[in-house]
Design a protein that fits this description.
Layout lengths: L17 H7 L1 H21 L5 H10 L7 H11 L4 H10 L13 H37 L4 E6 L2 E7 H21 L1 H4 L18 H12 L13 H27 L7 E2 L19 H8 L1 H13 L9 H31 L1 E2 L1 H9 L7 H12 L1 H18 L3 H7 L1 H4 L4 H7 L9 H15 L6
Antiparallel strand pairs: 1-2, 3-4
Helix pairs in contact: 1-6, 2-3, 2-6, 2-9, 4-5, 6-7, 6-13, 7-10, 7-20, 10-11, 10-12, 10-13, 11-13, 12-13, 15-16
């Protein structure tokens, strides 16, 4: 039964990707736990904590293909324990060596370390796709670095910018998220193997060495001390993913707005057969952009659920711990979908530069009234010029008279500027400031940091 959108065949591809679902799929979860059991047995055999022959038998038996999930689920109903059925089955498969299965470990050692292995696998996908997205966006920023468009504040036109400038801001934001994700790796991808309350008491004085060798086998960091009750690693990771999701959602919402019929400056990729409405044949809806923007709130809530798990009682408890089993997979699966959608967006984004220019001109020059003010200010002072241009700008909007006409008719303005100068000042393309230079700086930064290299 598929009761969650992640597993619903009709909906799941709008909320995740098959690749990321496979990371958090139950069989992979089981195998990661068995990988920890195998590494534990092999290490204990190395250190003569258990017989070498037993270690070899356990290692061979730790294969999820030999486990029946339905059988484990039924056994779990009886035991009311998340791992004991797996341990018993591993013991059975290992034969006489089964007496040495899970030797010295506690459930949370195995489950937490297995979860870290899953998260590390998910992390590789996230980094790969984020790097691809950065590469696509850097290329677009370079292509449109000098293409003017309306900059908007408070939902209305403000001053001209370039489309490449808008993209460059987003490139830097995504780049910071990439750096955060890379920087946290040594902290987050640490396993744990220290026994019931974290003191290694059950490992006969070899616990610290066992943990060190097991983590080396698994490719994980060795923790400073037991973190059964310290859930900040998972909380940090999902918190950074929520920042990334916020940026991706912002991109989706921004482009959704720019695709509106009345603005029409960009359009998401469209392919034959895409249906916008079951009743309105003409509709080409921003379905990809809506999906991209819609997933940020679920990421926020899933990440918040993981942070709640930090409120652990004593040396550990299952009340907090179980929240991670919900929040971690959801956060990773939703973010994978957002990244995939963003890649699809920039692989086929239509940028309507003609409409960008048309929208710049829709106010009749009002969008560059600041430029006019500063030019007049050279003659009459900035504050006086502000008052003069303000009155003319308000009259243009309220009376429906072109701003250029009012400027050319005003005696104060005519004392300072001729008609040709006014026309030049009112060209939005002449008031991009240093936007192009800043884009060039971002492009240089992107090249230096390797953001231009497609993963």
């Amino acid at each position: 039964m598929a009761a969650h959108v992640i597993d619903n065949l009709l909906l799941q591809n709008s909320f995740g990707t098959e690749e990321m679902r496979e990371v958090w799929e139950q069989k992979n979860r089981l195998q990661k736990q068995l990988d920890v059991e195998r590494a534990l047995a092999e290490t204990e055999g190395e250190l003569d904590v258990i017989p070498k022959a037993a270690a070899a038998a356990i290692s061979t038996a730790a294969d999820s293909r030999r486990f029946d999930l339905q059988e484990l689920a039924v056994a779990g109903i009886t035991s009311k324990h998340s791992l004991i059925a797996t341990i018993k089955k591993l013991q059975e498969l290992a034969g006489d060596a089964g007496e040495f299965v899970h030797y010295g470990a506690t459930t949370q050692d195995i489950v937490d370390t297995g979860t870290v292995l899953q998260l590390k696998e998910a992390h590789k996908i996230i980094l790969r796709d984020l790097k691809k997205l950065l590469s696509r966006m850097v290329a677009a920023a370079e292509q449109y670095k000098a293409v003017p468009m309306a900059g908007r504040t408070h939902g209305v036109q403000a001053l001209p910018i370039s489309f490449g400038f808008k993209l460059s801001i987003l490139v830097c934001e995504l780049g910071r998220h990439l750096e955060r994700l890379e920087e946290l790796e040594h902290r987050v991808f640490a396993g744990v193997l220290c026994g019931a309350v974290g003191t290694y008491a059950s490992f006969s004085g070899k616990g610290i060495e066992i943990e060190k060798r097991v983590m080396k086998r698994l490719g994980l960091s060795v923790p400073e001390i037991c973190w059964h009750a310290s859930r900040d690693r998972f909380a940090e990771y999902t918190s950074v993913l929520s920042l990334l999701s916020a940026t991706l959602g912002k991109i989706g919402h921004e482009f959704y707005t720019l695709m509106a019929t009345e603005i029409d400056e960009v359009e998401e990729p469209f392919s034959k057969g895409t249906i916008g409405s079951s009743t309105m044949p003409q509709k080409r809806n921003p379905a990809l952009l809506e999906g991209l923007a819609s997933l940020t709130r679920p990421v926020f809530y899933s990440a918040a659920l993981v942070r709640e798990a930090m409120l652990m009682e004593h040396e550990r408890d299952a009340m907090a711990w179980r929240a991670e089993w919900i929040g971690l997979p959801e956060t990773c699966i939703y973010i994978a979908c957002q990244l995939a959608s963003s890649l699809a967006l920039f692989d086929g984004l239509q940028v309507k530069t003609g409409n960008m220019r048309k929208n710049l001109e829709i106010s009749g020059g009002l969008i560059v009234s600041e430029k006019v003010m500063f030019e007049l200010g050279r003659f009459m002072g900035k504050q006086t010029a502000h008052a003069v241009v303000y009155d003319l700008a308000m009259a243009a909007q309220e009376q429906g008279i072109p701003f250029s006409a009012l400027l050319k008719q005003d005696e104060k303005v005519r004392c300072c500027l001729n008609e040709q100068q006014i026309d030049s000042l009112l060209d939005p393309a002449n008031y991009l400031g240093e936007a192009v230079e800043k884009v060039e700086q971002v492009l240089a930064l992107a090249k230096a940091k390797g953001w231009t290299e497609d993963a």
